[in-house]
Write a structure and sequence with these properties.
5-stranded antiparallel beta sheet; 12 strands; about 290 residues; alpha+beta
């Protein structure tokens, strides 16, 4: 039977994969068209999917037939267009995927600190400060620093603590264990996908309030900027299922950071204020608790 064409094609699945195959088209003696079903490994068992589809179709509406020629299988129809329409439906069915939606809180904690701490909660900048020298330099103290440095190491960067938090709607497309995940702005999806009503300018839920707090508290331009970090490494972003309680927790933490920043700016924003605080023997803003 004469082969009309042999064309390299690809099919993009719902999970973003590009599956390549060769489309072989031929014409029968009575003028009908045949397309061989793909034989590449990615298209395994597609013949059985085609069987199920044809059994469910109204034979009065579909003129496509399926044939097994022992060494290969093919579909046949009066026109090439009918073959292609069926093939598109077949691929869509065979590579179907399940899509789920979940609202999550994503966060990243970033810091640049350098200190050691013992079992009792004692803190020191270095082992030398802690009085750990000679055989006692390790003792019960452990490093809690986020920078690289030995027992006597120092960092040239200012000490810093940062927290980035955002609420997203997580879309997961799952095709037989192959997953594609995408995060959406809560205001860009439906209430059904999000799981609750949402107003970008509202103040009724902590998802809405948290969105406002981000603009006040996070000093980087966006969450993706914070993700890059300053230490030359990529710290993982963590996520939790969204609840009002969890959103309130992060909201309160960020607001606490804002209030702390305001207090520190009132002192360190002006050298004269710092001198006044020293002269008045003011309690340090973040003083360690005194031993009883």
């Amino acid at each position: 039977m004469p082969e009309l064409s042999k064309t390299k094609r690809s099919y993009k699945t719902a999970t973003g994969e590009h599956l390549h195959y060769v489309e072989r088209v031929s014409v029968t003696t009575n003028g009908e068209f045949r397309i061989r079903l793909p034989e590449e490994p990615d298209f395994k068992d597609i013949y059985h999917t085609a069987e199920k589809m044809l059994r469910s179709l109204d034979r009065r509406e579909s003129k496509v037939s399926l044939h097994d020629a022992k060494t290969y299988s093919y579909i046949q129809a009066p026109t090439l267009s009918e073959c292609h329409v069926f093939l598109g439906s077949l691929f869509s069915t065979h590579f179907s995927a399940v899509t789920t939606w979940e609202t999550v809180i994503v966060y990243r904690f970033d810091d640049w600190m350098h200190y050691i701490i013992d079992d009792a909660g004692g803190v020191a900048f270095t082992a030398y400060d802690a009085g750990l020298d000679g055989d006692n330099k390790q003792d019960s103290w452990e490093w809690a620093s986020s920078v690289n440095g030995g027992l006597f190491g120092h960092s040239s960067k200012p000490y810093r603590i940062a927290l980035g938090v955002e609420v997203y709607v997580k879309q997961t497309v799952d095709r037989s264990g192959i997953k594609k995940i995408k995060y959406h702005n809560p205001s860009h999806v439906t209430d059904e996908q999000r799981g609750f009503p949402f107003n970008h300018f509202g103040n009724d839920t902590y998802a809405e309030k948290l969105g406002h707090a981000i603009k006040m508290c996070v000093t980087t331009d966006s969450f993706s900027d914070l993700d890059r970090g300053d230490r030359g490494e990529k710290d993982p972003i963590k996520e939790l299922p969204y609840t009002e309680e969890s959103a309130k927790f992060f909201y309160d933490v960020l607001m606490g950071m804002c209030k702390l920043h305001h207090r520190m700016m009132s002192v360190f924003g002006n050298p004269e204020t710092v001198k006044l605080a020293i002269a008045n023997n003011s309690q340090p803003l973040l003083a360690a608790p005194k031993a009883e």
